[in-house]
Amino acid sequence: LYNQQHNYDIPGQLLQSTMSEETSDSESQDIQEHNETIRALSAGLLQIYEPKLREVKENLKELINKQNDLQIAMTSEKNAFSSRQIQEVNEMVSMSFLAVCLASV
């Protein structure tokens, strides 16, 4: 009885093992096809958008450089303006002091 049951189990195990291998092969093939599709779509998207994205990148670099130059110029102008104001205030204080001194005499 054990041998008969054992004999029946072997074909069942073989069938299950074969089905498992087929499923595994099928899944593997599906994954491979999926990966190839993704690669093809990615390559197509890059081919379409990469030139424009490179152009945008270069334009952004140029814009950032111009912004930096403008910021430096504005800072320099602000410092010069502040220096002139300080100088004007110093001149007014000096004149006021001179006027007070002359008025005292």
Describe the protein's architecture and organization.
With 105 residues, the protein is an all-alpha fold. Helix content is 98%, strand content 0%. The protein has 1 helix and no strands. It has one helix spanning 2-104. It is rod-shaped.
Task: List its traits.
single chain, 105 residues, mainly alpha, 1 helix, coiled coil, Snapin/Pallidin/Snn1
Give the topology, please.
Elements: H1 2-104
Pfam family, one: Snapin_Pallidin
Keywords: Coiled coil
InterPro entries: Snapin/Pallidin/Snn1 (IPR028119)
Q: Specify the structural class.
A: mainly alpha
Figure out the total of helices.
1
Give the low-pLDDT segments: 1-11
Return the average pLDDT rounded to an integer.
82
Instruction: Count all strands and give the number.
Output: 0
Strand content: under 5%
Order of helices and strands: H
Rg calc: 42 Å
Instruction: Categorize the overall geometry.
Output: rod-shaped
Give a quick account of the main beta sheet: strands, pairing sense, barrel closure.
none
State the end-to-end distance: 139 Å
Q: Oligomeric form of this entry?
A: single chain
Give the % helix.
over 70%
Keywords: Coiled coil
InterPro entries: Snapin/Pallidin/Snn1 (IPR028119)
Region (Disordered): 1-33
Coiled coil: 46-73
